[in-house]
Amino acid sequence: MHIPDSLQDLANSEVVQFLKRPKTVVRIFAGVFSLIVFSSLLTDGYQNKTDSSQLHCVLNSNNVACSFAVGAGLLALLSCLAFLALDAHESHIADSRFRTAFQLLDFILAVLWAGAWFLGFCFLTNQWKLSPPKQFLLGSSSAKAAITFSFFSIPLWVFQAYLALQDLRHDAPVPYKRSMDEGGVVLTTLSPPSATSPINTPTTGPNNMSYASSALSPYLTSAKVPRLAMMPDN
């Protein structure tokens, strides 16, 4: 492993340049927000009521709301980590088709996660409003943190979809480039021959007509002059 000798070498290293990319920064923040959502509800999202020892979700005692937030946060975090690993090896991918498929998958997943976090934010907010006040001794801060970072995750995934779309447009292959080049070769091959081409050289022979003479129009050939015959005197 190469250790940089100065701060300038450290700033110009591949790791720092990779971390400074907008796509990398967005993925890191999206992963951190997802971690906060599922960890806050996983630790303090289930509390017991004041009159019962059974654990309930702090969001209106709806276990579906807590399960959705925990599952979505965990899957979003794993998605960010997987795409960060693929981004680190993106420069070493030589196959343009695989790179295009990777960028297309990145765009589709970003759009889906943006929609999922929007629905999750609306669902969690609705369940929190329906929760009776002071029903649980603890867990209100965890619920508010999950709702807040669910909302912050929406613009992050939208921006991530925009960056994936930009990369997809810039790296889009030209499917007709080869055929256009081949067409240019065909046109060059079928171009009219030059004056010095051997195809214009007339082939003459004792029993063959000349190519040049056959190509001339009959109207351009010289007319035969009639001969005058001398009539005998009577």
Automatic annotation (TrEMBL):
Signal peptide residue numbers: none
Residues spanning the membrane: 24-42, 62-86, 107-126, 146-165
Membrane as UniProt keyword: yes
Matches recorded under PROSITE patterns: MARVEL
InterPro entries in the cross-refs: Marvel, Synaptogyrin
Bilayer topology: Multi-pass membrane protein
Domain of life per record: Eukaryota
Every MARVEL domain range: 18-169
Keyword annotations: Membrane, Transmembrane, Transmembrane helix
Major site of localization recorded for this protein: membrane
GO cellular component: neuromuscular junction; synaptic vesicle membrane
The keyword Transmembrane helix appears for this protein: yes
Localization (cell): Membrane
Annotated family: Belongs to the synaptogyrin family.
Name of the molecule in the record: Synaptogyrin
Phylogenetic lineage: Eukaryota, Metazoa, Chordata, Craniata, Vertebrata
